[in-house]
Write a structure and sequence with these properties.
It contains six helices and seven strands, in the order ββαααβββαββαα. With 233 residues, it is α/β, with parallel strands linked by helices. The chain has a five-stranded mixed sheet with strand order 3-5-4-7-6. A two-stranded antiparallel sheet has the order 1-2. β4 and β5 form a beta hairpin. The relative contact order is 0.07. About 14% of the residues have low confidence.
């Protein structure tokens, strides 16, 4: 007599011989009765339903209430006390969340518009950098960057640059001829902020991150941990 297969193995699954060969079916998972048989009541739903039914009844019976001009008509039958309290709390929370989200939305819009203005100015330097470096080894790191061909008033900024194998702090000289993002992109470095950046990432490193992101579900933490391990060596 053949031994009985152990529970949890493929041989223990129920099979059928209909068709070609044996076909195994996955066992059905027992549902949680607490989740499937529990009724959830939304706060204020009953009073809202009463107001809608009353408004519908008035529309069907053509009993439009006369109100002064400029004031909306409100049909509010007396709801339950519990529903009223729940509705007050919910409306207050939604109002506070909406008020708090307005400044955040304004900041996001300003940040997005700033990036749009910067990206429109660095497209040509980026394409020029790609045409000059495609199929060639990575350029050596430099201690300073400058691209002004005129006698302009220059100002410098110390930028921390992240490369494949190391990071370095370089001095970037910019003027009215070439902006700071354009100068960084022309040398293969992408700024981390649209204005007054203090850090830049190598274009090749960003390309490697994109390839890693397409094949990994946790590319940000993986790349950060890998760079940390590489930099402290």
């Amino acid at each position: 007599m053949a031994p009985k297969p152990s529970t949890g193995t493929r041989a223990a699954l129920s099979s059928t011989t209909k068709g070609l060969g044996h076909h195994f079916t996955s066992p059905r998972k027992v549902r949680n009765l607490r989740k499937t048989q529990s009724f959830v009541s939304f706060p204020g739903q009953s009073s809202k339903q009463q107001r809608l039914l009353a408004h519908l009844d008035d529309l069907l019976n053509h009993n439009a209430t006369s109100t002064p001009s400029g004031e909306p008509s409100i049909d509010t039958p007396p709801p339950d006390l519990a529903d009223t309290e729940m509705m007050v709390v919910t409306d207050t929370e939604e109002t506070s969340d909406h008020e708090q989200s307005i400044p955040q939305r304004v900041r996001h819009d300003h940040f997005f518009n700033s990036w749009k203005l910067v990206i429109s100015t660095i497209v040509h330097p980026y394409m020029q950098y790609l045409s000059e470096t495609v199929g060639k080894p990575l350029a050596q790191q430099v201690s300073s960057l400058s691209a002004c061909s005129k006698d302009c008033e220059k100002r410098y900024t110390n930028i921390t640059c992240l490369y494949f194998d190391s990071f370095a702090s370089i001095t970037v000289w910019c003027c009215e001829c070439v902006t700071l993002p354009q100068l960084l992109i022309h040398n293969g470095l992408f700024p981390t902020t649209p204005s007054q950046p203090r850090m830049a990432v190598s274009v090749e490193l960003l390309g490697f991150y994109r390839a890693l992101f397409e094949r990994s579900c946790d590319a940000v933490n993986a790349l950060a941990s890998a760079l940390h391990t590489q930099y402290i060596r």
